[in-house]
Specification:
The complex is a heterotrimer of chains A (355), B (514) and C (304). Chain A is an all-alpha fold and 355 residues long. Helices cover 75% and strands 0% of the residues of chain A. Chain C has 13 helices and two strands. The chains are: A mainly alpha (355), B alpha/beta (514), C mainly alpha (304).
Chain lengths: 355, 514, 304
């Protein structure tokens, strides 16, 4: 057996063990006061796996965050810490809704047109902080952080003045026409054709990043801007390209989320999918191929949370605590760089070197 | 003063010190003693255990049980940096350890501030600081913010900090690396003064001339073990190198390639300048020649090389290869023409520590290898990495090993491998052996010799004069952005360090191009 | 109401102070952490936690001051937790900040639910409000007296914190050590300063200020807790701290600019200008200012 692969599996096993431990550690305080603590844990962990329909729910939750996770991966790979993805999702959903409502119907291509509009408009949120950084050196983390809110209010303004359905009780758009909505894949869930697009997007970006010259250039620039300049790579263009691609994916996430799930656009707060995307990018170690399993995993947790809320009466927000703890645990170098772990992995590899 | 009857205990004694990290032994039963007023040089290859030993002395690491540290004959327990300081031990690290945003006085008293009513007592601190600065004859006021000082001045502030804390044992780790010639002389004076005050100094350096000039004794470590100590009269370069490497390096420098006098001119640089650091330099490089650019740090050597390579824009001048003028505007143009550059700052500018050897080697040539549609060619990349591993004898677990895990010498070889894969005509090497241990150095010299034999023109920048003398066919000496001297090796008259220094310091008359 | 009348209206002045209080306290908290090299991206979460802790404890004990204390303690605890994650577990600082925000958003919702059975608002709880302070003598000064006197006690606290923190940074051993650790941890370690300890202290202090800022929101600005009520103020505070270029006085100046922008946004709505567009102003201003400053090469590298 390939020793390097074995060493990788050991790492994976440790990661899974850590995640399991963290889930239990967060869950047990909520479970203990309950009559049957075991039932609480079982509902959370096994509920999502109990039927095809629930597995469909997992995939449904995973769809938008796979997109945002992918967007975060691309953006972070450029070396910029651009948090504009959060408002990119919002903007993408809004723009897709606007396209569906205001543009004429394109028949079967209506969803495609709306998604493209959503992606293009949504990309603004990542392009602006990137441009400010490259042109004027403004710190992208800070500008993107506040720009998210500026975009939110601009979007709510647009919703209120141009898309609002006065007949609806609260602030929401007119009903999105049926021909713009995405096809549902599984009855009883809201799983839609967007999931397939998400899968394809992750594979495409993965191939781009690891098997093309342009992807290699991006990885070079992200790791060593000084050397990229030394090599004569057009760093600025490559970095901007990544912001644009990341923004497009974020916008797509919003568009697909709205067209796939909701009858109307009704976001008046940032949806939080961008932040989740960052978590996914971290879990996936900024590798597009790992984004899909990472997104499915968070979707699984979310459905588990829904089971807790429905069957046990514990709010599904527990999932947020679990996710936060996992985020810290899987990035904790104290665990993964622990001498014992490193020694174990080195021992496995050393055998390979000697062979 | 010292007792006249009986032998007084040495100022510092480290006995039977061992240190293991995990299962790896970094130090094995090392002993070292320092007398009052002695400069005790500590030498050894990178990884020999020098810095581990010093970290144990300063309290940054704890030694394994079994060893002991004695000061004035009394055993002390150094269990942390604070304890080390209490024992009068101060370390001046190679990488400076001053906070650049604080003033000189604040830095000197950082961690043990004078206080009055909850606040730091600025006046008292600055007064005390002024005394120390005066003792070192430093002219800047205590309220100077450190970021305004030159690197050399900062080094001296570190010494001032050690003095202010009443250090009795001073460890200097390659203190002259960032010093100008003038500052180095100043440092020598200060060391003499410290000796006169009975302070014991442990001096870590790779530079033989410093060892000659300063040390009373030299101890050598190798692979974490104590090899031996030479007294002042026994210090001979060859002997020290042999002790460090553990074998006789009869052909440490290898120069087998034919002298280049009869070869054709490969690279021809005329009146190149950026008018800031480089002011009109012209030279020719022949095929199969090793041409060294010597000169003091800051004389414009790296800047000249970067102009030739197109890494920085030039204001005037022309570059021709094989007699054909080249239009080099950026690095890419130079690479395309077959001129490649090995940066002196490999960690920042050259290597991707997170990437594998495979990726690192093929980065420059991936564009040429690419399939249609912009896909990279993984098969060819692997071939290239395999070739580099073999020809350069890179020691790693495999081509997928991360370069960050390699030793300095092997990292340098990965970079060289990358450059060689571009099949260069001209190879510019900027301090190729910096931070590389003695064994790998010798391998790099051999490689340079091989390349010259294959007809590649090598332009090498080096601050180590023995190295320049050892490998160069011809030496150009730079000073203040100009080439001020040229020394060619002749069969009857080898290049000497003295001749280079004479040009570099301006002692010899300027006879270079007008 | 004319524009001039709005500007001279004492109520406008009071609004500026009301708006700036939480921002200033939070931004000063970020300042301390930033100078120690542990940029506190979790400020939003710390504020949220403080806001809930203040409401719950003041409702249980009937004392607003105990509520405030609880908020400060809660914020400090999160700061300690973040320090442990970063320096103990070796997690990435920015990720730790994001995790704190996520955990606080979920955690406060859970906390509110278990305390009141409601997930959205604490309206059912009779929680305390921090008192206003009438400054004796000052209030009697004609003209400025009514302007200066009678604001929330935390507003005065925030303003007082500016010189105090400035003095702490410049003139105390603790402040010097924070600055040394922030700019060059290795340098600090060689003189025997414990980098981890200083960063722990800085993050705890930062968290305490965050808790206090949150308490102001739920026990001063309004008198209840609502889900995610900080509404990005922790992020504006980050922008403010960066605009303030790492000094307490600069942070005060930046806070005033943002507070005036937000006050204008609030008052301009009375002219019938679209509410949402006005709400953008306090978020756009920092982007513009930061960009102008960095373009002129004056700001120091911020954040990460």
């Amino acid at each position: 057996m390939n020793r390097a692969l074995l060493a990788g599996l050991v790492r994976l096993a440790i990661t899974l063990a850590v995640i399991a431990a963290v889930i239990l550690a967060v869950l047990i305080p909520f479970a203990l006061p309950h009559d049957q603590p075991g039932a609480v844990v079982a509902a959370f962990l096994l509920g999502p796996l109990s039927s095809v329909r629930h597995l469909g729910n997992v995939a449904e939750y995973a769809t938008p965050i796979a997109f945002t996770g992918l967007a975060a991966t691309v953006v972070f790979r450029s070396g910029l810490f651009n948090l504009g993805i959060e408002s990119g999702v919002f903007l993408g959903g809004l723009a897709a809704t606007a396209a569906a409502l205001l543009l004429p119907s394109f028949g079967p291509f209506t969803p495609l047109v709306a998604i493209i509009v959503g992606a293009v408009v949504g990309s603004i949120s990542c392009v602006i902080p990137g441009e400010l950084r490259l042109r004027w050196d403004a710190p992208e983390m800070v500008t993107s952080l506040v720009l998210n809110f500026a975009i939110l209010y601009a979007g709510v303004f647009f919703l209120n003045y141009y898309l609002r359905d006065p007949a609806a009780g609260s602030l929401m758009s007119y009903r999105i026409p049926a021909d713009a909505r995405l096809d549902r894949l599984l009855s009883g869930t809201r799983l839609n054709s967007g999931a397939i697009v998400a899968l394809a997007a992750c594979l495409t970006v993965g191939i781009w990043l690891y098997f093309t010259r342009s992807g290699l250039n991006l990885r070079i620039v992200g790791q060593g801007p000084a050397f990229a300049a030394h090599l004569g790579l057009p760093s600025r263009r490559i970095i901007m390209q990544a912001q644009l691609v990341g923004g497009l994916i974020a916008g797509m996430a919003g568009a697909i989320q709205v067209l796939g799930l909701y009858p109307r656009f009704s976001w008046t707060q940032l949806p939080g999918l961008g932040w989740t995307g960052i978590i996914i990018a971290i879990l996936a170690r900024e590798n597009p191929f790992y984004v899909v399993p990472a997104a499915l995993f968070l979707g699984y947790l979310q459905v588990g949370g829904d089971f807790l809320a429905r069957d046990i009466g514990i709010p599904s927000e527990v999932v947020g605590l679990v996710t936060a703890a996992i985020m810290l645990a899987v990035t904790a170098s104290a665990i993964f760089q622990h001498p014992a772990v490193l020694r174990l992995i080195r021992r496995i590899r050393r055998v390979e070197a000697a062979q | 003063m010292e007792q006249t009857s009986g032998r007084p205990a040495p100022l510092l004694e480290m006995r039977h010190i061992s240190k293991t990290f995990g299962s790896m032994a970094a130090l094995k039963d090392v002993s070292l003693s320092v007398e009052r007023g002695e400069v005790h040089a500590l030498m050894g290859e990178n990884g020999a255990g020098k810095s581990t030993l010093m970290k144990i002395l300063s309290g940054a690491y704890r030694a394994d049980a079994g060893g002991s540290i004695l000061i004035d004959g009394r055993e002390v327990d150094i269990d942390g940096p604070q304890a080390g300081r209490h024992c009068g031990i101060a370390v001046i690290y190679q990488e400076l350890s001053l906070a650049p945003n604080l003033t000189v006085a604040q830095n000197i008293f950082l961690g043990r501030e004078h206080r009055r009513g909850g606040f730091t007592d600025r006046k008292a601190q600055e007064a005390a600081c002024r005394d120390v600065l005066a003792r070192l004859r430093l002219a800047f006021p205590p309220s100077t913010v450190v970021s305004r000082l030159s690197l050399g001045e900062r080094q001296l502030v570190e010494i001032a900090r050690a003095l202010a804390s009443d250090a009795r044992i001073l460890v200097m780790d390659e203190p002259t690396t960032s010093l100008s010639l003038l500052e180095t002389e100043r440092l020598y004076e200060i060391i003499a003064d410290l000796k006169a005050h009975g302070i014991g100094i442990i001096y870590i350096s790779h530079r033989m001339e410093e060892i000659y000039a300063l040390s009373d004794r030299v101890s050598v470590l190798r692979d974490g073990r104590y090899v031996g100590t030479l007294g002042r009269d026994e210090i001979v370069a060859e002997r020290l190198v042999a002790m460090m490497v553990g074998r006789d390096l009869s052909s440490f420098y290898k120069k087998d390639h034919r002298p280049a006098a009869d070869r054709r001119t490969l690279l021809s640089v005329r009146d190149i300048a950026d008018d800031v650091r480089v002011h009109g330099c012209s030279f020719d490089l022949k095929a199969g020649e090793v041409l060294c650019l010597a000169g003091l740090v800051g004389s414009g050597r790296t800047e000249l090389a970067r102009l030739v390579y197109g890494a920085d824009p030039r204001t005037r001048g022309s570059i021709a290869l094989d007699g054909r003028a080249l239009d080099i505007r950026r690095a890419r143009d130079a690479i395309a023409a077959g001129i490649v550059y090995l940066t002196e700052d490999r960690r920042r500018l050259g290597l991707f520590l997170e990437m594998s050897i495979n990726d690192n080697v093929s980065i420059n040539v991936a564009a040429g290898d690419a399939h249609g549609a912009g896909f990279t060619n993984a098969v060819k990349a692997r071939e290239r990495a395999d070739r580099a591993m073999k020809t350069l004898e890179i020691r790693a677990t495999g081509i997928s090993a991360k370069t960050g895990a390699l030793s300095g010498g092997n990292q340098q070889k990965v970079l060289l491998g990358r450059l060689l894969e571009t099949e260069p005509r001209v190879l510019i090497l900027d301090e190729p052996t910096r931070g590389v241990d003695v064994g790998a150095k010798s391998e790099i010299y051999r490689l340079i010799d091989d390349l010259a034999t294959r007809g590649i023109g090598v332009l090498m920048i080096s601050s180590e004069l023995p190295e320049v003398v050892g490998v160069a066919d011809r030496v150009l000496v730079m000073r203040d952005g100009r080439i001020v001297g040229e020394i060619a090796a002749a069969p009857d008259q080898p290049i000497t360090q003295e001749a280079i220094m004479a040009y570099a310091t301006g002692v010899a008359a300027v006879d270079a191009d007008a | 109401m004319t524009g001039l009348a709005i500007i001279t209206d004492p109520a406008t002045f009071a609004t500026v102070l009301r708006v700036m209080t939480p921002l200033l306290i939070a931004a000063l908290g970020i300042l301390i952490s930033d100078r120690a090299g542990v940029f506190n991206l979790g400020m939003e979460g710390m504020m949220l936690t403080g806001a809930l802790a203040g409401v719950l404890v003041s409702a249980w004990t009937g004392s607003a001051w105990l509520g405030l204390s609880a908020a400060i303690v809660a914020g400090g605890l999160i700061g300690a937790l973040m320090a442990f994650a970063v320096n103990g577990l070796g997690a990435n600082l920015i990720i730790a900040g994001i995790a704190v925000n996520l955990a606080a958003s979920s955690g406060t919702t859970l906390g509110l639910f278990f305390a009141t059975g409601d997930k959205g608002m604490s309206g059912a709880l009779r929680s305390g409000v921090m008192p206003s302070l009438d400054l004796p003598f000052v209030r009697d000064i004609p003209g400025i007296g009514p302007l200066v006197s009678g604001h929330n006690v935390l507003t005065y606290g925030a303003l007082l914190a500016v010189p105090l923190i400035s003095l702490m940074m410049a003139r105390t051993a603790f402040g010097l050590r924070i600055r040394a650790v922030g700019v060059d941890p290795k340098a600090a370690a060689t003189v025997g300063i414990s980098v981890k300890l200083i960063q722990l202290q800085a993050l705890v202090l930062s968290g305490m200020l965050g808790g206090m800022a949150g308490a102001y929101l739920s026990m001063g600005y309004v008198s209840w807790f609502a889900q995610d009520m900080t509404a990005g103020r922790g992020f504006i505070a980050i922008a403010i701290e960066v605009m303030g270029m790492g000094t307490a006085w600069g942070t005060l100046a930046a806070t005033i600019v943002i507070a005036i922008a937000e006050t204008l946004a609030i008052t301009m709505q009375t002219f019938g200008l679209p509410n949402e567009l006005m709400q953008m102003i306090p978020y756009v201003v920092p982007i513009v200012i930061l960009t102008i400053w960095t373009a002129r090469g004056r700001a120091r590298p911020a954040g990460r």
